[in-house]
Write a structure and sequence with these properties.
The structure holds two protein chains of two kinds. By secondary structure, chain A is mainly alpha-helical. Chain A has one domain (2-89, 97-198). Chain A contains seven helices and no strands. Chain A is globular and about 50 Å long. By secondary structure, chain B is an all-alpha fold. Chain B has a domain at 252-447. In chain B, strands 1-2 form a two-stranded antiparallel ribbon. In chain B, helix 1 (2-15) runs antiparallel to helix 2 (21-49), helix 5 packs antiparallel against helix 9 (221-248) and helix 12 (302-333) runs antiparallel to helix 14. The longest helix of chain B has 32 residues, at 142-173. The two termini of chain B are 32 Å apart. The chains are: A mainly alpha, B mainly alpha. The A-B interface holds A 117-118, 120-122, 134, 138, 141, 147, 150, 154, 157-158, 160-161, 164-165, 168, 170-172, 175-176, 179-180, 182-183, 186-187, 190, 193-194, 197-198, 205-208 and B 92, 117, 119-120, 122-123, 126-127, 129-130, 133-134, 137, 140, 142, 145-146, 148-150, 152-154, 156-157, 160, 163-164, 166-168, 170-172, 176, 186-187, 190.
Chain lengths: 208, 447
């Protein structure tokens, strides 16, 4: 039991570090690789919790996380990046160094918020990690100026929500996972369709 | 019966994928009419028995009101869509998917209203985001794609908070059914506050409302009508359920937080109606204003809750009429700007009357029942004079501003082109239903 919880916590910390890697990038391609890695790490985490708690839904979520957010959506974005030269440009408007610093401060705030507000209610080991991941994902969505980076922020947010749901055995986790994935695919679809109709989507367009 | 309410739009959704244009229109109209009739029957049954519970569904008076709203606006949108689609110049979303998505939109909203499980309600609302975002991109306008993008991003952040709220709620009460969930006051406060942020984003509450004017303003009018008149109330119902759990769990501070955000939304929206230059955005801010007043209402006790749902009902029919009327004006005048429209009463007489009736109804003018509803909410707020003053200011500002803009459009010299009478009759019929319900309510109150 102790070993499993330690593995889950270790994977959670790796996920947070990978999220900082996303925050620190001003090019799109490394961000896509990092979000694929984050999703794959989380799929392992879901599988570990699923095996430990004997929850079949979590095993399905692990497979969905790996296949859709770990492989499918990153592949779609990578294919689009190769096709569209605008994505190879550096995002100059986003100040990466200050963004990482903001991320560190936000992570500390997230931990304090968890300890002060949520801990007495939820009281689970490693419960602060999804809260921190959620706040960092919001930061990616808010701070980034282009549609693909915001889509990556959305996938990270989805990962955070499913992470929290998995730790607390939320009964609708499977339904939530499926619909969140559908929304992610719809977002990727909007970017591709917009490019098809209007040509290359500028970096600053489709700001959320 | 409750399964049938979902089966009809589901069938329409699947059959609308067939490659026959006329068939898609007929199927959607026929099955939406049946859905509407069934929702009326459900309402009558709920009034008689108090609740209807079938397998996994549970409907009380509040759910029945929202189901009726969703089904009726679905029917009117199915009726209005053929006219508007014929006047769309270029499509971004392939035209053949429109009816399938419209039916799916109604299906997801009905599902969210019928289920007593807050988790499944969340899933239903998440599904509405996917479907309605695609519908917003129907017309080939860059603004529509940007609005859809902003909508999905902001709504997904909001729904993230809502899911967190459900995580807290389930962890403390071990159930997600709204009628049985009870939890300690601290946990209830936390869950309701997160739900206010989460579902509040979909309701259009300040400061999470940023997606609303863009999405409602750029969507095709039949979709704007469904977004404004039925989707916002469905999200409102979801928050109302969490709020009720919190209040019955003695988390009374939630009422103060809800009233604060409600009145701030109403005030902000009322102020934002003043500088509007595009009539669909004006009506979008009006929806935000009404949702703010209704949200304040639920925080003010039982009378406030009833008044809020009455307000939503009148607003639903009237606002749908305003959006269909907007579609007529856009087709006839080829503009969306208030300043470019005048003389509606002489060029599009029925549309002009519908806009006047609709704007009076949504701003709470007598004889509409929205007047009584707003009066009751104001009366309930008298214990807190600051709240009453802010609410009264919001109501007065939005009343003056919206009716001023609409009056500018309806009077003056004739400019627009003629459009078919049936297209003009739809917004008028919708506004007249709001008037009919108002007379019914007045009759009941007088008896």
């Amino acid at each position: 039991m102790f070993a499993t919880e330690t593995v889950v916590e270790f994977l959670g910390i790796l996920v947070i570090l990978v999220t900082f890697e996303i925050l620190s990038q001003s090019y799109i391609k490394p961000m896509v690789n990092a979000i694929a890695l984050q999703s794959i790490l989380l799929s392992i985490l879901f599988a570990v919790i699923g095996i430990q708690k004997h929850v079949n839904e979590l095993m399905v979520i692990a497979v969905l996380t790996f296949s859709i957010r770990g492989v499918l959506i990153p592949s779609i974005i990578s294919w689009d990046i190769k096709k569209n030269p605008i994505w190879s440009y550096r995002e100059l408007e986003t100040m990466v160094s200050s963004l990482v610093l903001t991320g560190v401060i936000l992570a500390i705030i997230g931990y304090i918020v968890y300890r002060v507000i949520f801990h007495t209610v939820l009281n689970i080991r490693g419960g602060a990690l999804p809260v921190v991941l959620l706040l960092l994902s919001f930061l990616i969505i808010i701070a980034r100026k282009n549609a693909v980076a915001q889509l990556i922020g959305y996938i990270s947010e989805e990962n955070a929500l499913l992470y929290a749901s998995a730790l607390l055995n939320l009964p609708i986790i499977l339904e939530a996972g499926v619909f969140l994935d559908l929304l992610g695919i719809a977002l990727a679809g909007i970017i591709l369709a917009a490019e098809k109709e209007y040509g290359h989507v500028e970096l600053e367009e489709l700001v959320g | 019966m409750l399964w049938l309410l979902l089966f009809l739009p589901l069938t329409a959704c699947l059959l609308s994928l067939l490659p026959f244009r006329r068939l898609r229109e007929v199927i959607t109209l026929t099955l939406s009419t049946l859905t509407f009739a069934l929702s009326v029957y459900l309402m009558v049954k709920v009034i008689k028995t108090g609740k209807v519970a079938e397998s996994v569904f549970y409907v009380d008076l509040y759910s029945a009101i929202i189901v009726l709203l969703v089904a009726s606006v679905y029917f009117f949108s199915a009726l209005y869509s053929p006219f508007y689609l014929r006047n769309v110049k270029e499509f971004f979303l392939k035209r053949r998917y429109y009816y399938s998505l419209l039916n799916a939109f109604a299906l997801t909203m009905l599902f969210a209203s019928l289920t007593p499980n807050l988790g499944l309600m969340w899933v239903g609302l998440e599904a509405t985001t996917i479907v309605s975002a695609l519908l917003i991109t129907l017309e080939k306008k860059k603004a529509s794609v940007e609005a859809a993008w902003r909508y999905v991003i902001v709504a997904s952040v909001g729904l993230g908070f809502a899911l967190l709220s459900l995580v807290v709620l389930y962890h403390s009460s071990k159930t997600l059914n709204w009628y049985s969930a009870r939890l300690p006051a601290y946990q209830a406060t936390l869950a309701a506050t997160l739900a206010l942020i989460g579902f509040g984003t979909k309701i259009g509450l300040f400061p999470m409302h940023t997606w609303l004017p863009d999405a409602h303003g750029t969507a095709p009018p039949p979709v704007s009508a469904m977004l404004s008149a039925s989707l916002l109330p469905v999200a409102f119902l979801a928050y109302f359920r969490v709020f009720s759990i919190a209040i019955s769990s003695n988390a009374h501070v939630v009422a103060s937080i809800t009233a604060f955000f409600g009145v701030m939304t109403a005030l902000m929206a009322a102020l934002l109606t003043i500088p509007q230059q595009i009539f669909k955005r004006l009506f979008a801010y009006s929806s935000m204003d009404v949702m703010g007043i209704a949200t304040t209402g639920i925080a003010l006790g039982k009378e406030g809750i009833l008044a809020s749902f009455l307000l939503l009902t009148i607003h639903g029919f009237a606002k749908a009429g305003l959006f269909y009327g907007s579609g007529n004006v856009m087709v006839s005048y080829r503009t969306g700007r208030i300043d470019d429209v005048s003389g509606l009463l002489s060029s599009l007489k029925l549309t002009g009357i519908a806009l006047i009736l609709g704007s009076l109804a949504v701003t709470g003018a007598p004889p509409f029942a929205s007047f009584i509803a707003e009066l009751v909410i104001l009366a309930c707020s008298l214990r807190n004079p600051a709240l009453t003053a802010a609410l009264a200011a919001a109501i007065l500002i939005s009343f003056s501003s919206i009716n001023y803009h609409v009056t500018k459009m309806t009077f003056g010299e004739r400019r627009g082109e003629k459009i078919p009478v049936y297209a003009e009759a739809i917004p008028l019929l919708s506004a007249l239903i709001a008037l009919g319900i108002s007379f019914g309510v007045l009759g009941v109150l007088l008896i």
